[in-house]
User: What shape does this take?
Amino acid sequence: MHIPDGFVSGPINGATAVLSTAVLAFSIARVKQELRDKGFAVPLLATLAAFVFAAQMLNFPIGGGTSGHFLGALTVAALLGPWSACIVLSVVLVIQGLLFGDGGITALGSNILNMGIIAGVVAYPIMRGFRALLPTGRNGYFISAAVASWIGVVLASAACAMELALSGTSPIEIAFPAMVGTHAIIGIGEAMIAVAVLAAVATARPDIIPAWARLEKTPQTNKMSKSIWGLTGAGLALALALALFGSPFASKAPDGLDKVAEEKGFIQAASEDKVVWTNALFPDYKIKSIESEDVSTSLAGLIGTIIAFGFGFAAIRLTVRSSRQQT
Amino acid sequence: MEHGFIDRYSSLESCIHRLDTRTRILAALGFLAVVVSTPPWHLQAFVIYAGLISWITALSRVPLRFVASRAALVLPFSALVALGLPFIGGGEKVVFFGIPLAVNGLWILAGAIMKSFLGAVAIVLLVSTTPFGLLLDGLRRLKAPALFIDLLALTYRYLFILVDESQRLRRAARARGYAPRWLPQAVVIGRLIGNLFVRSYRRAERIYNAMRLRGYDGQIPAAQTRPFSLSESLLLAVIILALVSIRIIAA
Assistant: This one.
Protein backbone atom coordinates (compact mmCIF):
# COMPACT_ATOMS: atom_id res chain seq x y z
CA MET A 1 0.00 0.00 0.00
CA HIS A 2 3.09 2.25 0.00
CA ILE A 3 2.65 4.68 -2.92
CA PRO A 4 5.96 5.64 -4.63
CA ASP A 5 6.83 9.04 -6.11
CA GLY A 6 5.13 9.92 -9.39
CA PHE A 7 1.91 7.98 -8.86
CA VAL A 8 -0.14 10.70 -7.26
CA SER A 9 -0.85 13.97 -9.07
CA GLY A 10 0.12 17.38 -7.74
CA PRO A 11 -3.29 18.49 -6.43
CA ILE A 12 -3.88 15.18 -4.63
CA ASN A 13 -0.36 15.27 -3.20
CA GLY A 14 -0.98 18.80 -1.98
CA ALA A 15 -4.36 18.07 -0.46
CA THR A 16 -3.28 14.90 1.33
CA ALA A 17 -0.04 16.56 2.51
CA VAL A 18 -1.95 19.47 4.04
CA LEU A 19 -4.46 17.15 5.71
CA SER A 20 -1.79 14.77 7.03
CA THR A 21 0.39 17.61 8.29
CA ALA A 22 -2.55 19.13 10.14
CA VAL A 23 -3.54 15.86 11.82
CA LEU A 24 0.09 15.06 12.61
CA ALA A 25 0.65 18.51 14.13
CA PHE A 26 -2.48 18.06 16.23
CA SER A 27 -1.29 14.60 17.31
CA ILE A 28 2.12 15.99 18.31
CA ALA A 29 0.45 18.77 20.32
CA ARG A 30 -1.80 16.23 22.06
CA VAL A 31 1.06 13.89 22.90
CA LYS A 32 3.20 16.83 24.08
CA GLN A 33 0.46 17.71 26.56
CA GLU A 34 0.71 14.21 27.94
CA LEU A 35 4.52 14.43 27.76
CA ARG A 36 4.67 17.09 30.47
CA ASP A 37 3.90 14.56 33.15
CA LYS A 38 5.21 11.57 31.23
CA GLY A 39 8.63 11.95 29.59
CA PHE A 40 8.33 8.26 28.86
CA ALA A 41 6.44 9.08 25.65
CA VAL A 42 9.54 9.82 23.51
CA PRO A 43 11.46 6.57 24.10
CA LEU A 44 8.20 4.62 24.12
CA LEU A 45 6.87 5.96 20.81
CA ALA A 46 10.29 5.60 19.19
CA THR A 47 10.68 2.00 20.35
CA LEU A 48 7.17 1.20 19.19
CA ALA A 49 7.89 2.76 15.78
CA ALA A 50 10.88 0.43 15.55
CA PHE A 51 8.57 -2.38 16.68
CA VAL A 52 6.00 -1.60 13.97
CA PHE A 53 8.78 -1.49 11.38
CA ALA A 54 10.13 -4.87 12.51
CA ALA A 55 6.64 -6.38 12.72
CA GLN A 56 5.88 -5.22 9.16
CA MET A 57 8.80 -7.34 7.97
CA LEU A 58 7.20 -10.53 9.29
CA ASN A 59 5.13 -11.50 6.25
CA PHE A 60 2.22 -13.87 6.63
CA PRO A 61 0.84 -16.12 3.89
CA ILE A 62 -2.52 -15.28 2.35
CA GLY A 63 -2.63 -18.35 0.12
CA GLY A 64 -1.56 -19.03 -3.44
CA GLY A 65 2.05 -18.20 -2.65
CA THR A 66 1.34 -14.54 -1.97
CA SER A 67 1.81 -12.83 1.35
CA GLY A 68 0.69 -9.77 3.23
CA HIS A 69 2.10 -7.93 6.15
CA PHE A 70 0.92 -6.39 9.39
CA LEU A 71 0.11 -2.66 9.39
CA GLY A 72 -0.25 -2.12 13.13
CA ALA A 73 -2.03 1.24 13.14
CA LEU A 74 -5.07 0.10 15.08
CA THR A 75 -3.07 -2.13 17.40
CA VAL A 76 -0.93 0.83 18.48
CA ALA A 77 -4.07 3.00 18.72
CA ALA A 78 -5.73 0.43 20.98
CA LEU A 79 -2.70 0.37 23.29
CA LEU A 80 -1.58 4.03 23.25
CA GLY A 81 -4.46 6.01 21.77
CA PRO A 82 -5.11 7.22 18.21
CA TRP A 83 -2.83 10.29 18.32
CA SER A 84 0.19 8.25 19.36
CA ALA A 85 -0.63 5.74 16.64
CA CYS A 86 -0.69 8.52 14.05
CA ILE A 87 2.76 9.70 15.16
CA VAL A 88 4.22 6.18 15.32
CA LEU A 89 3.00 5.27 11.83
CA SER A 90 4.25 8.60 10.43
CA VAL A 91 7.72 7.96 11.89
CA VAL A 92 7.69 4.49 10.36
CA LEU A 93 6.62 5.83 6.96
CA VAL A 94 9.25 8.59 6.95
CA ILE A 95 12.01 6.09 7.77
CA GLN A 96 10.73 3.61 5.19
CA GLY A 97 10.60 6.35 2.56
CA LEU A 98 14.00 7.83 3.35
CA LEU A 99 16.05 4.73 4.02
CA PHE A 100 14.33 1.80 2.38
CA GLY A 101 12.75 3.29 -0.74
CA ASP A 102 9.38 2.03 0.51
CA GLY A 103 6.90 4.77 -0.41
CA GLY A 104 7.84 8.05 -2.07
CA ILE A 105 8.74 11.27 -0.33
CA THR A 106 6.29 13.35 -2.37
CA ALA A 107 3.60 10.73 -1.69
CA LEU A 108 4.26 10.84 2.06
CA GLY A 109 1.09 12.88 2.62
CA SER A 110 -1.07 10.23 0.96
CA ASN A 111 0.71 7.36 2.68
CA ILE A 112 0.38 8.94 6.13
CA LEU A 113 -3.26 9.72 5.43
CA ASN A 114 -4.03 6.11 4.43
CA MET A 115 -1.96 4.12 6.86
CA GLY A 116 -1.64 6.42 9.86
CA ILE A 117 -4.77 8.51 9.91
CA ILE A 118 -7.42 6.34 8.27
CA ALA A 119 -6.19 2.98 9.59
CA GLY A 120 -5.45 4.43 13.05
CA VAL A 121 -7.23 7.65 13.94
CA VAL A 122 -10.41 6.87 11.97
CA ALA A 123 -10.55 3.18 12.89
CA TYR A 124 -10.09 3.85 16.61
CA PRO A 125 -13.57 5.34 17.27
CA ILE A 126 -15.02 2.35 15.41
CA MET A 127 -13.28 0.10 17.93
CA ARG A 128 -14.62 2.23 20.80
CA GLY A 129 -18.07 1.96 19.29
CA PHE A 130 -17.99 -1.80 19.08
CA ARG A 131 -16.52 -2.08 22.57
CA ALA A 132 -19.37 -0.13 24.07
CA LEU A 133 -21.87 -2.18 22.12
CA LEU A 134 -20.47 -5.63 22.83
CA PRO A 135 -20.46 -7.17 26.29
CA THR A 136 -17.61 -5.83 28.39
CA GLY A 137 -14.67 -8.09 29.15
CA ARG A 138 -11.92 -9.79 27.25
CA ASN A 139 -13.93 -11.13 24.33
CA GLY A 140 -15.79 -7.92 23.63
CA TYR A 141 -12.48 -6.07 23.66
CA PHE A 142 -10.78 -8.48 21.28
CA ILE A 143 -13.69 -8.71 18.87
CA SER A 144 -14.00 -4.94 18.62
CA ALA A 145 -10.24 -4.66 18.00
CA ALA A 146 -10.45 -7.32 15.30
CA VAL A 147 -13.39 -5.69 13.52
CA ALA A 148 -11.85 -2.22 13.70
CA SER A 149 -8.49 -3.53 12.39
CA TRP A 150 -10.21 -5.07 9.42
CA ILE A 151 -12.26 -1.94 8.70
CA GLY A 152 -9.15 0.23 9.09
CA VAL A 153 -7.10 -1.77 6.59
CA VAL A 154 -9.95 -1.94 4.08
CA LEU A 155 -10.75 1.77 4.35
CA ALA A 156 -7.04 2.59 3.96
CA SER A 157 -6.83 0.51 0.79
CA ALA A 158 -10.01 2.16 -0.53
CA ALA A 159 -8.47 5.58 0.12
CA CYS A 160 -5.28 4.47 -1.66
CA ALA A 161 -7.32 3.36 -4.69
CA MET A 162 -9.20 6.67 -4.66
CA GLU A 163 -5.96 8.67 -4.63
CA LEU A 164 -4.53 6.67 -7.53
CA ALA A 165 -7.79 7.00 -9.46
CA LEU A 166 -8.21 10.73 -8.86
CA SER A 167 -4.61 11.19 -10.02
CA GLY A 168 -5.45 9.38 -13.26
CA THR A 169 -2.78 6.76 -12.60
CA SER A 170 -5.06 3.79 -12.34
CA PRO A 171 -8.71 3.69 -13.40
CA ILE A 172 -10.99 3.29 -10.42
CA GLU A 173 -12.82 0.29 -11.83
CA ILE A 174 -9.50 -1.58 -11.66
CA ALA A 175 -7.75 -0.01 -8.69
CA PHE A 176 -10.74 -0.11 -6.36
CA PRO A 177 -11.72 -3.80 -6.62
CA ALA A 178 -8.05 -4.87 -6.74
CA MET A 179 -6.98 -2.88 -3.68
CA VAL A 180 -10.10 -3.42 -1.59
CA GLY A 181 -10.36 -7.08 -2.62
CA THR A 182 -6.82 -8.02 -1.61
CA HIS A 183 -6.98 -5.94 1.54
CA ALA A 184 -10.27 -7.50 2.59
CA ILE A 185 -8.19 -10.69 2.88
CA ILE A 186 -5.04 -9.07 4.27
CA GLY A 187 -7.33 -7.35 6.78
CA ILE A 188 -8.28 -10.76 8.20
CA GLY A 189 -4.59 -11.40 8.90
CA GLU A 190 -4.34 -7.92 10.40
CA ALA A 191 -7.30 -8.65 12.68
CA MET A 192 -5.82 -11.98 13.79
CA ILE A 193 -2.48 -10.37 14.57
CA ALA A 194 -4.11 -7.45 16.40
CA VAL A 195 -5.97 -9.89 18.66
CA ALA A 196 -2.82 -11.98 19.23
CA VAL A 197 -0.82 -8.87 20.17
CA LEU A 198 -3.52 -7.57 22.52
CA ALA A 199 -3.88 -11.03 24.07
CA ALA A 200 -0.13 -11.26 24.64
CA VAL A 201 -0.10 -7.82 26.23
CA ALA A 202 -3.16 -8.61 28.37
CA THR A 203 -1.43 -11.72 29.68
CA ALA A 204 2.10 -10.42 30.15
CA ARG A 205 1.56 -6.74 30.91
CA PRO A 206 -2.10 -5.93 31.57
CA ASP A 207 -1.02 -2.59 33.06
CA ILE A 208 -0.12 -1.36 29.55
CA ILE A 209 -3.65 -1.51 28.19
CA PRO A 210 -5.29 1.72 29.36
CA ALA A 211 -8.77 0.32 28.92
CA TRP A 212 -8.00 -2.90 30.70
CA ALA A 213 -7.96 -1.70 34.29
CA ARG A 214 -11.08 0.36 33.69
CA LEU A 215 -12.73 -2.58 32.01
CA GLU A 216 -12.22 -5.03 34.80
CA LYS A 217 -12.16 -3.00 38.00
CA THR A 218 -14.25 0.15 38.09
CA PRO A 219 -18.00 -0.26 38.23
CA GLN A 220 -19.74 0.90 35.08
CA THR A 221 -20.83 4.42 35.81
CA ASN A 222 -22.34 6.40 33.02
CA LYS A 223 -22.87 3.15 31.22
CA MET A 224 -26.02 4.38 29.58
CA SER A 225 -24.56 7.23 27.58
CA LYS A 226 -21.51 5.17 26.72
CA SER A 227 -23.59 2.40 25.24
CA ILE A 228 -25.63 4.93 23.24
CA TRP A 229 -22.48 6.34 21.69
CA GLY A 230 -21.29 2.81 21.07
CA LEU A 231 -24.54 1.88 19.40
CA THR A 232 -24.31 4.96 17.20
CA GLY A 233 -20.72 4.26 16.20
CA ALA A 234 -21.31 0.60 15.51
CA GLY A 235 -24.51 1.30 13.59
CA LEU A 236 -22.81 3.92 11.46
CA ALA A 237 -19.87 1.61 10.77
CA LEU A 238 -22.25 -1.15 9.76
CA ALA A 239 -24.21 1.21 7.50
CA LEU A 240 -21.01 2.42 5.85
CA ALA A 241 -19.76 -1.12 5.32
CA LEU A 242 -23.11 -2.10 3.84
CA ALA A 243 -23.12 0.93 1.54
CA LEU A 244 -19.56 0.28 0.46
CA PHE A 245 -19.73 -3.45 -0.16
CA GLY A 246 -23.42 -4.19 -0.37
CA SER A 247 -24.74 -1.53 -2.69
CA PRO A 248 -23.34 -2.98 -5.94
CA PHE A 249 -25.23 -6.18 -5.14
CA ALA A 250 -28.47 -4.36 -4.47
CA SER A 251 -31.32 -5.32 -6.74
CA LYS A 252 -31.02 -3.75 -10.15
CA ALA A 253 -34.79 -3.99 -10.61
CA PRO A 254 -36.70 -0.76 -10.07
CA ASP A 255 -37.94 -0.39 -6.54
CA GLY A 256 -41.58 -0.57 -5.58
CA LEU A 257 -42.54 3.01 -6.23
CA ASP A 258 -40.67 3.16 -9.54
CA LYS A 259 -42.40 0.00 -10.67
CA VAL A 260 -45.82 1.29 -9.74
CA ALA A 261 -45.07 4.55 -11.46
CA GLU A 262 -44.03 2.69 -14.59
CA GLU A 263 -47.21 0.66 -14.64
CA LYS A 264 -49.49 3.54 -13.93
CA GLY A 265 -47.80 5.60 -16.57
CA PHE A 266 -46.89 8.55 -14.41
CA ILE A 267 -43.22 7.75 -14.90
CA GLN A 268 -43.27 10.09 -17.87
CA ALA A 269 -44.13 12.86 -15.50
CA ALA A 270 -40.78 12.20 -13.91
CA SER A 271 -38.89 11.63 -17.14
CA GLU A 272 -35.71 13.55 -17.57
CA ASP A 273 -36.95 16.52 -19.54
CA LYS A 274 -39.45 17.39 -16.87
CA VAL A 275 -37.37 16.70 -13.77
CA VAL A 276 -36.74 20.00 -12.10
CA TRP A 277 -33.65 18.95 -10.21
CA THR A 278 -31.51 17.61 -13.04
CA ASN A 279 -28.34 18.38 -11.17
CA ALA A 280 -28.91 15.87 -8.41
CA LEU A 281 -25.64 15.00 -6.78
CA PHE A 282 -25.81 11.31 -7.61
CA PRO A 283 -28.52 10.65 -10.23
CA ASP A 284 -29.59 7.00 -9.92
CA TYR A 285 -27.12 6.55 -7.07
CA LYS A 286 -24.11 6.94 -9.35
CA ILE A 287 -21.33 9.44 -9.63
CA LYS A 288 -21.22 10.68 -13.23
CA SER A 289 -17.47 11.06 -13.65
CA ILE A 290 -16.76 7.50 -12.56
CA GLU A 291 -17.23 4.91 -15.25
CA SER A 292 -17.51 1.63 -13.39
CA GLU A 293 -21.06 1.06 -12.29
CA ASP A 294 -20.25 -0.95 -9.16
CA VAL A 295 -17.62 1.41 -7.84
CA SER A 296 -19.67 4.43 -8.65
CA THR A 297 -22.65 2.90 -6.82
CA SER A 298 -20.42 2.03 -3.84
CA LEU A 299 -19.03 5.53 -3.54
CA ALA A 300 -22.40 7.16 -4.02
CA GLY A 301 -23.79 4.86 -1.34
CA LEU A 302 -20.93 5.69 1.02
CA ILE A 303 -21.23 9.44 0.59
CA GLY A 304 -25.01 9.25 0.69
CA THR A 305 -24.94 7.33 3.96
CA ILE A 306 -22.66 9.91 5.53
CA ILE A 307 -24.86 12.79 4.36
CA ALA A 308 -28.01 11.01 5.54
CA PHE A 309 -26.41 10.44 8.93
CA GLY A 310 -25.39 14.08 9.13
CA PHE A 311 -28.88 15.33 8.30
CA GLY A 312 -30.52 12.88 10.68
CA PHE A 313 -28.15 13.82 13.48
CA ALA A 314 -28.66 17.54 12.92
CA ALA A 315 -32.44 17.17 12.76
CA ILE A 316 -32.58 15.22 16.01
CA ARG A 317 -30.23 17.63 17.77
CA LEU A 318 -32.37 20.59 16.75
CA THR A 319 -35.60 18.88 17.80
CA VAL A 320 -34.19 17.86 21.16
CA ARG A 321 -32.78 21.30 21.79
CA SER A 322 -36.05 23.10 21.01
CA SER A 323 -38.10 20.71 23.15
CA ARG A 324 -35.65 21.26 26.01
CA GLN A 325 -36.03 25.00 25.77
CA GLN A 326 -39.80 24.64 26.08
CA THR A 327 -39.65 22.77 29.35
CA MET B 1 20.16 -7.18 10.10
CA GLU B 2 23.21 -5.56 8.65
CA HIS B 3 22.50 -1.89 8.54
CA GLY B 4 25.82 -0.63 7.22
CA PHE B 5 24.39 -0.86 3.73
CA ILE B 6 21.93 1.96 4.19
CA ASP B 7 24.26 4.92 4.50
CA ARG B 8 27.39 2.99 3.56
CA TYR B 9 28.86 5.77 1.42
CA SER B 10 27.78 8.64 3.63
CA SER B 11 31.25 9.22 5.06
CA LEU B 12 33.07 9.55 1.73
CA GLU B 13 34.98 12.75 0.92
CA SER B 14 33.60 14.76 -1.98
CA CYS B 15 32.33 18.22 -2.84
CA ILE B 16 28.75 16.92 -2.45
CA HIS B 17 29.47 15.44 0.99
CA ARG B 18 31.02 18.75 2.11
CA LEU B 19 27.89 20.79 1.34
CA ASP B 20 25.65 21.97 4.14
CA THR B 21 23.09 19.25 4.92
CA ARG B 22 20.26 21.71 4.35
CA THR B 23 21.47 22.41 0.80
CA ARG B 24 21.38 18.71 -0.02
CA ILE B 25 17.94 18.19 1.55
CA LEU B 26 16.39 21.17 -0.22
CA ALA B 27 18.04 20.35 -3.54
CA ALA B 28 16.76 16.76 -3.34
CA LEU B 29 13.25 17.95 -2.50
CA GLY B 30 13.37 20.50 -5.35
CA PHE B 31 14.50 17.78 -7.74
CA LEU B 32 11.67 15.51 -6.59
CA ALA B 33 9.04 18.23 -6.95
CA VAL B 34 10.19 19.17 -10.45
CA VAL B 35 10.46 15.55 -11.66
CA VAL B 36 7.10 14.52 -10.27
CA SER B 37 5.34 17.51 -11.78
CA THR B 38 6.72 16.98 -15.32
CA PRO B 39 4.19 15.39 -17.71
CA PRO B 40 5.50 12.02 -18.97
CA TRP B 41 5.48 12.92 -22.69
CA HIS B 42 8.30 15.48 -22.22
CA LEU B 43 10.81 12.66 -22.60
CA GLN B 44 13.73 15.02 -23.24
CA ALA B 45 13.19 16.57 -19.80
CA PHE B 46 13.50 13.16 -18.15
CA VAL B 47 16.69 12.48 -20.10
CA ILE B 48 18.13 15.75 -18.77
CA TYR B 49 17.03 14.91 -15.20
CA ALA B 50 18.69 11.50 -15.48
CA GLY B 51 21.87 13.08 -16.85
CA LEU B 52 21.89 15.69 -14.09
CA ILE B 53 21.45 13.21 -11.26
CA SER B 54 24.11 10.89 -12.78
CA TRP B 55 26.52 13.82 -12.94
CA ILE B 56 25.87 14.69 -9.28
CA THR B 57 26.29 11.01 -8.37
CA ALA B 58 29.65 10.97 -10.17
CA LEU B 59 30.70 14.13 -8.32
CA SER B 60 29.76 12.51 -5.00
CA ARG B 61 31.89 9.41 -5.75
CA VAL B 62 29.04 7.15 -4.67
CA PRO B 63 29.07 4.23 -7.16
CA LEU B 64 26.36 4.77 -9.76
CA ARG B 65 25.60 1.05 -9.79
CA PHE B 66 24.87 1.11 -6.06
CA VAL B 67 22.49 4.06 -6.41
CA ALA B 68 20.72 2.56 -9.43
CA SER B 69 20.31 -0.89 -7.93
CA ARG B 70 18.97 0.50 -4.63
CA ALA B 71 16.56 2.77 -6.49
CA ALA B 72 15.43 -0.10 -8.73
CA LEU B 73 13.78 -1.64 -5.65
CA VAL B 74 10.74 0.60 -6.28
CA LEU B 75 10.19 -0.76 -9.79
CA PRO B 76 8.27 -3.96 -8.90
CA PHE B 77 5.63 -1.88 -7.11
CA SER B 78 5.40 0.61 -9.98
CA ALA B 79 4.96 -2.23 -12.43
CA LEU B 80 2.32 -3.87 -10.26
CA VAL B 81 0.15 -0.78 -10.08
CA ALA B 82 0.53 0.53 -13.60
CA LEU B 83 1.29 -2.46 -15.84
CA GLY B 84 -2.35 -3.10 -16.64
CA LEU B 85 -2.92 0.42 -17.92
CA PRO B 86 -1.97 -0.06 -21.60
CA PHE B 87 -4.42 -2.96 -21.90
CA ILE B 88 -7.46 -1.10 -20.70
CA GLY B 89 -8.88 2.32 -21.25
CA GLY B 90 -9.89 3.81 -24.53
CA GLY B 91 -8.45 6.45 -26.78
CA GLU B 92 -5.80 6.01 -29.42
CA LYS B 93 -4.26 2.56 -29.80
CA VAL B 94 -0.97 1.30 -31.13
CA VAL B 95 -0.58 -2.31 -32.20
CA PHE B 96 2.51 -3.96 -30.81
CA PHE B 97 3.18 -7.62 -31.71
CA GLY B 98 -0.48 -7.93 -32.52
CA ILE B 99 -1.65 -6.59 -29.16
CA PRO B 100 -3.56 -3.31 -29.18
CA LEU B 101 -2.17 -0.99 -26.49
CA ALA B 102 -3.70 2.28 -25.33
CA VAL B 103 -1.28 5.15 -25.99
CA ASN B 104 -2.58 7.08 -23.03
CA GLY B 105 -2.04 4.12 -20.71
CA LEU B 106 1.48 3.59 -22.05
CA TRP B 107 2.37 7.20 -21.25
CA ILE B 108 1.02 6.92 -17.72
CA LEU B 109 2.96 3.68 -17.23
CA ALA B 110 6.18 5.21 -18.57
CA GLY B 111 5.70 8.34 -16.46
CA ALA B 112 5.06 6.39 -13.26
CA ILE B 113 8.16 4.24 -13.81
CA MET B 114 10.46 7.14 -14.71
CA LYS B 115 9.24 9.36 -11.89
CA SER B 116 9.31 6.72 -9.16
CA PHE B 117 12.79 5.60 -10.27
CA LEU B 118 14.29 9.11 -10.51
CA GLY B 119 12.66 10.04 -7.19
CA ALA B 120 14.17 6.98 -5.55
CA VAL B 121 17.60 7.81 -7.08
CA ALA B 122 17.45 11.30 -5.55
CA ILE B 123 16.55 9.94 -2.11
CA VAL B 124 19.19 7.18 -2.23
CA LEU B 125 21.79 9.77 -3.22
CA LEU B 126 20.71 12.10 -0.40
CA VAL B 127 20.95 9.30 2.16
CA SER B 128 24.26 8.05 0.71
CA THR B 129 25.88 11.46 1.05
CA THR B 130 24.51 12.26 4.51
CA PRO B 131 24.88 10.16 7.66
CA PHE B 132 21.36 9.72 9.07
CA GLY B 133 22.17 11.68 12.24
CA LEU B 134 23.27 14.69 10.19
CA LEU B 135 20.22 14.35 7.96
CA LEU B 136 17.99 14.64 11.03
CA ASP B 137 20.06 17.57 12.26
CA GLY B 138 19.49 19.26 8.89
CA LEU B 139 15.75 18.64 9.12
CA ARG B 140 15.74 20.04 12.66
CA ARG B 141 17.47 23.18 11.43
CA LEU B 142 14.88 23.42 8.67
CA LYS B 143 12.39 23.78 11.54
CA ALA B 144 10.89 20.29 11.54
CA PRO B 145 9.17 19.69 14.93
CA ALA B 146 11.79 18.73 17.53
CA LEU B 147 9.67 15.95 18.99
CA PHE B 148 9.32 14.30 15.59
CA ILE B 149 13.07 14.54 14.95
CA ASP B 150 13.84 13.04 18.38
CA LEU B 151 11.48 10.19 17.59
CA LEU B 152 13.12 9.57 14.20
CA ALA B 153 16.56 9.54 15.81
CA LEU B 154 15.60 7.10 18.56
CA THR B 155 13.63 4.92 16.16
CA TYR B 156 16.68 4.68 13.90
CA ARG B 157 18.79 3.80 16.94
CA TYR B 158 16.58 0.84 17.93
CA LEU B 159 15.26 -0.17 14.52
CA PHE B 160 17.97 -2.68 13.69
CA ILE B 161 17.93 -4.19 17.17
CA LEU B 162 14.20 -4.88 16.96
CA VAL B 163 14.45 -6.15 13.38
CA ASP B 164 17.14 -8.56 14.60
CA GLU B 165 14.87 -9.59 17.43
CA SER B 166 11.98 -10.24 15.06
CA GLN B 167 14.25 -12.30 12.79
CA ARG B 168 15.35 -14.37 15.80
CA LEU B 169 11.71 -15.02 16.72
CA ARG B 170 10.96 -16.08 13.15
CA ARG B 171 14.04 -18.30 12.99
CA ALA B 172 13.01 -19.99 16.23
CA ALA B 173 9.52 -20.63 14.82
CA ARG B 174 11.00 -22.04 11.61
CA ALA B 175 13.33 -24.27 13.57
CA ARG B 176 10.21 -25.74 15.18
CA GLY B 177 8.75 -26.56 11.79
CA TYR B 178 6.65 -23.45 11.06
CA ALA B 179 6.26 -23.19 7.28
CA PRO B 180 2.96 -21.35 6.76
CA ARG B 181 1.03 -21.77 3.57
CA TRP B 182 -2.38 -20.24 4.13
CA LEU B 183 -4.01 -17.44 6.05
CA PRO B 184 -5.18 -19.17 9.28
CA GLN B 185 -1.56 -20.06 9.96
CA ALA B 186 -0.87 -16.34 10.36
CA VAL B 187 -1.95 -16.75 14.01
CA VAL B 188 1.61 -17.85 14.77
CA ILE B 189 2.97 -14.63 13.25
CA GLY B 190 0.48 -12.81 15.46
CA ARG B 191 1.91 -14.49 18.56
CA LEU B 192 5.45 -13.65 17.46
CA ILE B 193 4.46 -10.01 17.00
CA GLY B 194 2.69 -10.01 20.39
CA ASN B 195 5.86 -11.34 21.96
CA LEU B 196 7.88 -8.70 20.09
CA PHE B 197 5.55 -5.98 21.39
CA VAL B 198 6.00 -6.98 25.02
CA ARG B 199 9.77 -7.15 24.56
CA SER B 200 9.77 -3.74 22.84
CA TYR B 201 7.73 -2.21 25.64
CA ARG B 202 10.12 -3.57 28.27
CA ARG B 203 13.03 -2.27 26.23
CA ALA B 204 11.40 1.17 26.07
CA GLU B 205 11.13 1.17 29.87
CA ARG B 206 14.81 0.28 30.26
CA ILE B 207 15.78 2.95 27.72
CA TYR B 208 13.71 5.54 29.58
CA ASN B 209 15.30 4.68 32.91
CA ALA B 210 18.77 4.90 31.39
CA MET B 211 17.91 8.24 29.80
CA ARG B 212 16.58 9.62 33.07
CA LEU B 213 19.72 8.55 34.91
CA ARG B 214 21.66 10.65 32.41
CA GLY B 215 19.53 13.71 33.07
CA TYR B 216 16.79 13.39 30.47
CA ASP B 217 13.89 15.73 31.21
CA GLY B 218 11.70 15.32 28.14
CA GLN B 219 13.99 17.15 25.76
CA ILE B 220 16.98 15.82 23.84
CA PRO B 221 19.60 18.58 23.54
CA ALA B 222 20.28 19.62 19.94
CA ALA B 223 23.66 20.51 18.45
CA GLN B 224 24.68 24.13 17.96
CA THR B 225 23.14 25.79 14.93
CA ARG B 226 25.42 27.02 12.20
CA PRO B 227 24.09 29.82 10.02
CA PHE B 228 23.36 29.02 6.40
CA SER B 229 26.30 30.56 4.52
CA LEU B 230 25.82 32.93 1.59
CA SER B 231 27.62 30.68 -0.89
CA GLU B 232 25.39 27.75 0.06
CA SER B 233 22.23 29.79 -0.45
CA LEU B 234 23.53 30.95 -3.84
CA LEU B 235 24.33 27.38 -4.86
CA LEU B 236 20.89 26.22 -3.79
CA ALA B 237 19.26 29.06 -5.73
CA VAL B 238 21.24 28.09 -8.84
CA ILE B 239 20.22 24.44 -8.52
CA ILE B 240 16.52 25.25 -8.11
CA LEU B 241 16.70 27.76 -10.96
CA ALA B 242 18.35 25.19 -13.22
CA LEU B 243 15.73 22.56 -12.41
CA VAL B 244 12.83 24.92 -12.99
CA SER B 245 14.27 26.16 -16.29
CA ILE B 246 14.79 22.59 -17.55
CA ARG B 247 11.18 21.91 -16.66
CA ILE B 248 9.96 25.00 -18.52
CA ILE B 249 12.23 24.77 -21.58
CA ALA B 250 11.62 21.07 -22.13
CA ALA B 251 7.88 21.52 -21.86
